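Morning run. Coffee first, then this:
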Amino acid sequence: MNLISSDTTISISNLKKKFGDFTAVDGLSFDIHKNEIFGLLGPNGAGKTTTINMICGLLPPSEGTISFNGYEGNDHKSLIGYCPQENIFYPKLTCYEQLLFIGQMYGIASKTLKPKALELLELLGLREKTDVRANNLSGGMKRRLNICLALIHDPEILILDEPEAGLDPQSRILVRDFIKASGKEKTIILTTHNMDEADRLADRIAIIDYGKLLLLDTPQNLKKTIGEGDILEIIIENANENSISQFAEKVSSFSQNIKKGSNYLLIKHPNIIEHLPAIKNIADISGLLISEIKLRENTLEDVFIHLTGRNLRS
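And here it is:
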């Protein structure tokens, strides 16, 4: 056993996972600190789920190590509460019965389990649904119930895979507030495609792609990696590949930091707003119809596109 820093809950070193000739996770190394909300971001197929499954002990690594609280070993599953992207529950059991059943599987004494179950239902806004069968809940309520199930044994580490997927706006706010509060007492690993969610919640974020770690830092520092200045986003209604390329070439005199898509340009410059009238004039002369113009600061989505050349959802 190798002792790691006392403020490190999970230490991942040179983690690899191969499926035949395919390498899903390729040499990941990073630490996750005690009581931090850690975002794990990447497009579909980046290796997020495989990494999570190895952390949970559902998959063995091909190479590398995962240490918990400073020690390597397999006796860590009770430390983890996992809420997967797909809801998992027993449809004919009530919310309360679900929690009691899972709690009994963890060997929790009845006198401790019953109040804990009611407390979790209260915290996730399900107290009025205590005696309602799970299959009769709305989609957002089912999602919240699954978070309760992941927490019934009071784990030190909570892993949430797309926790806001399918939530209505009210439920989204409730879950976000719950995650923020839980992050003061637990180590939370959060995977999401929602950049706003990650930016609001995560203390640090790891961006991975093709199984490799691209960047790891705070949201603010990540957004600084693509430079200072605002981003002007121009969406063209009648765009095609050729017209977008010509438009990008013509406005390059205002900024060399230009990203183009199938129907849009992202132009970055500290004082880009001053050049907006001239840019609009170029579009008019080129016969391009601007359907929308947005001026904004860097986002995590911009960071990802800058790193990989593709959108997070691709």
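The first helix runs from residue 48 to 56. Good start to the day.
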